[in-house]
Every structure is written in C-alpha cells, then in structure tokens.
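Hey, can you fold this one?
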Amino acid sequence: MRISVKAIIALLACVLFAGTAFAATVTVDPAAIVNGYMNVHDLGDAFIWGSGWGLPALTAVYSGSNLELGPNSIDDPAPYWYLPSGGPGSVGQKIMHANCYAQVDGPLAGQTLTFNGEVLSNTLTSSHVAMAFIKDFAPDFSSFVTTTVVLPASGTFSVTQNLVNDPARHVQYGFEVIGACVWVTDRASYGTAVVAPYIAVSTEESTFGGVKALFR
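Sure. Predicted structure:
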C-alpha cells in the first residue's frame, strides 16, 4: 500500500503536535490595549484601593501605534497625594501601579500566550519601573497567575505564559508602571518608556534566504 506525501505530512503533524497546547502571539496594538486600571499603595507599597482609570489619567498615551508610558501624576494638591502639598518639587505620598491592558475572555483558554513588542526608548529613572505582563484571572477576579518582564532600555521584550484551560477566566496583557506619583511639572525629569509593535522577520527570509539564493 502506497501512502501519499500529504498523508505522511499530516501524520507527522499529528505526532509533533499531539498533546501540545495551541499558541497565540499578541503585540502592542492601539485597538486592543485600551483599558486602564490604577492600584494605589502606601509608601510601604501595601495595597490601599484600586479602580478603573482612563489611559490619559495613567499617563499612557498613543502616538500612532507607539505607546508612551510615564510616571503617574495626580492633579490634586491634597496632602493625601503630596507633601507638603501638590506643586513643583512636592513629594508623592502614594505608590501608583498604573496598568494599561487588553482583556480577552474565553478564546485564549488553555493556550500558550506570548506578548511581545519593541522598546524604542526607556529613560525612566530608578524611581519608577515599567513592566510588560500577562495576567490570567479567575472568573470572579479573586486571584490571578501572572508573568512579567521589566522593559529594557531598548530592544525587544517578550512575555510567555501557559493559560489555564477555563473559558470563564479573563486574560489580560499589557504594561504596568510602578512608582510614586509626581507633580505634573516635574514629570519630564523622571523619564518615559516608549513601546511599539513587534515586527517579526520572515522565517523564510531569515532562515532559508541564503539557501534560496543558491537555486535562483
């Protein structure tokens, strides 16, 4: 009995991928990373409260497909936020965990998710840190599993996580900037991080380009 080439290829694919979770890859996308959430902590970094915030309030701003992430500013001079009060040179009294993210409910369950992108620049000082993350939340958001990576000064970043196989869970991927709130006129001195979509090099060109040239 003769077996066709197509049948052999199909059989090999079954062997290679049997028991292997499906994979998905996402990147920086202004149509997807549109949600904002702020977790406010005390100066010891203990959680106080959290709520949904718009991206501009997080100081996360798109320019085309590039996303600029900056230290958070609160336009409220009250001593709750700043000492002695809000103004140039004031000292932030809360540690802000500013999250901007995409959320996907259902379709990614059980998959291996990779979130990658390109850091065009990262001039944040040691007062603040920017991270890329994947978070896999329980259906009621009571708990989550997360994987994070600190953004480099420049170059690519990549975060990968095996997601729980439960379509009722909520998957988020995006960025978190952590650090004390700063008065708006002081913000520039703390730097920013600018991230862009990851553009993959063609596997054919990068791996087989030289071989192809031999047969042209």
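Residues 1-19, 204-216 have pLDDT under 50 and may be disordered. Let me know if you want another pass with a different chain boundary.
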